[in-house]
Write a structure and sequence with these properties.
- With 160 residues, the chain is α+β, with helices and mostly antiparallel strands.
- The chain contains 7 helices and 4 strands; from the N terminus they run ααββαααββαα.
- It has helices at 2-26, 48-51, 76-84, 86-89, 98-102, 127-135, 137-153, and strands at 59-66, 69-73, 110-117, 120-124.
- It has a two-stranded antiparallel sheet with strand order 1-2. Strands 3-4 form a two-stranded antiparallel ribbon.
- The termini are far apart.
Length: 160
């Protein structure tokens, strides 16, 4: 009887896990990963990754609304650079973790876990994921580039 109880409990746990992950993966995603306040990349200046080669916190007095998100910058110069060419400076995959997108998932980011490769900014969940990402970046980018349009199309108009 004890074994049957454990097996039933295990079966219930498996069913609940499948249901949870099915719901989590089918929820619409925002085109841009934002904080609850609607700020992209946790308020960090996307241009600074290219000019300063470092994450730099943006300031609320230098902000710009693009693709339904507020983008912040460390200076008026960075703000102007972004306005002229936002696609050049915005992180790939809407600012979600690039490794997660390569796995057809979304995950938040740590602005200190980043890579600029071939003129594109890639953000990662944390330093551990960044180390994994760096082991085969080109393959992960290829997969993420294939996955991202499909992931967005599942929104069925739900993009912000």
């Amino acid at each position: 009887m004890d074994l049957r109880f454990r097996l039933n409990g295990l079966l219930i746990a498996i069913i609940l896990s499948i249901a949870f992950f099915s719901c989590a993966n089918s929820s619409p995603i925002s085109q841009i990963n934002v904080t609850p306040e609607g700020v992209a990349i946790k308020g960090y200046d996307p241009v600074a990754y290219f000019t300063d080669m470092s994450p730099v916190k943006g300031m609320s007095e230098f902000k710009y609304e693009w693709k339904g998100a507020e983008w912040r910058f460390a200076s008026s110069e960075h703000l102007e650079m972004f306005i002229k060419d936002p696609e050049k400076y915005a992180p790939k995959y809407g600012g979600y973790c690039a490794y997660a997108v390569s796995q057809s998932k979304t995950a938040d980011i740590d602005p200190d876990s980043w890579t600029v490769l071939d003129g594109k900014l890639y953000l990662n969940l944390d330093k551990d994921v960044q180390r994994l990402w760096e082991k085969d970046m080109l393959e992960y980018i290829k997969k993420a580039d294939e996955n991202w349009p499909r992931m967005l199309s599942k929104n069925k108009g739900g993009l912000k």
